[in-house]
Amino acid sequence: METETEDLSRRSIGARRNPASQEAILDAAEAVLREGGIAGFSIEAVARRARAGKPTIYRWWPNRTALMLDVYTRFKNARAFPDTGTLRGDLVAFLDNQLLGFWKDSLCGTVYRAVIAEAQSDAGAEEALQAYQADRKQRALVLVERAKARGEVSQDVDAALIIDLVVAYAWHQLLVGHVAQSMSKVEAVVDTVLLGTPGYRA
Amino acid sequence: METETEDLSRRSIGARRNPASQEAILDAAEAVLREGGIAGFSIEAVARRARAGKPTIYRWWPNRTALMLDVYTRFKNARAFPDTGTLRGDLVAFLDNQLLGFWKDSLCGTVYRAVIAEAQSDAGAEEALQAYQADRKQRALVLVERAKARGEVSQDVDAALIIDLVVAYAWHQLLVGHVAQSMSKVEAVVDTVLLGTPGYRA
């Protein structure tokens, strides 16, 4: 067993086709991002770092955006969706911890800005981002669905719209470089989405 | 007079330093965008089209993003902010006509996506976008301020937050390529911002 492990570690990653080597490439991609930032990030640099061939990487990731997005997703998945017992608590935690707070202090904000930027001019990058977004949003609906089950909101609430409003607010702050400033607005944003504009009467 | 006009038209744009030549460069920039799209847009191509020197263009626009943003702004300014008499009407018109509808059928959506993308990696582009955003949002506050004056909302409503939520929703749809699909959500978005989530009770 030990021999086999040693043997594997000496072989190039490209020779193996298993999840472990995908992980090894993601590790390499993360290291390249940490050391050289977005500017130094390329399939070539990751291949060199992982001691893998470029075709091996392209077999799993069609472009550098898709690979960046997977590094990003790995970090993201380390944070579970909140379950505080109330919709307000969940949405505040979602916006504060999963979105703005996730981007504020880490490389993740920079990486996600680059992913979004590349999706604006590259069809493959756009497809990768759309797939990621669709999956994340689908999973985030549980926050609203649980609130429906608790009777906190009407059964016919458009859960996707609620999640969209919160995610959109966060994206906008990220893309105009106002993540840090907007952290103090988290509760006000969630309260507006839940309660509307103070004193509004048609 | 006619002679002077003819004379001016024969001189290169770079020789004049007046608003008219800025307009001529913007006309050229617009023509380049219409004909070659984002991919063919460069200071060089605009200079050639305007029969101006590149330094003339750089005197007014530090980078291609700033120039694209000014072409975009010129279109945008042709649409006045709505004044329907109600906040709901104004926000629906703002989102429908000034944001999503403005981007849907025209080159403007493509140009703005490119501007936002470039602002993610270029400090000069980010600065240009931030200045544009700050100005637009400042001017959009009038929609909420008028509602305050009419007594439609509380005096202490955070007008910037209301505008931010609407603008952010629109940006997100633009950047994930969902502008057309989201047009049908305009009223629901505004109603959520004004009235909150249906049936919500804490």
UniProtKB/TrEMBL annotation, chains A, B:
Matching Pfam families: TetR_C_11 (PF16859), TetR_N (PF00440)
Domain HTH tetR-type: 19-79
Keywords: DNA-binding, Transcription, Transcription regulation
The UniProt record lists the keyword Phosphoprotein: no
Any one GO molecular function term: transcription cis-regulatory region binding
DNA-binding residues: 42-61
InterPro entries in the record: Homeodomain-like_sf (IPR009057), HTH-type_TetR-like_transc_reg (IPR050109), HTH_TetR (IPR001647), Tet_transcr_reg_TetR-rel_C_sf (IPR036271), TetR_C (IPR011075)
Descriptive protein name: TetR/AcrR family transcriptional regulator
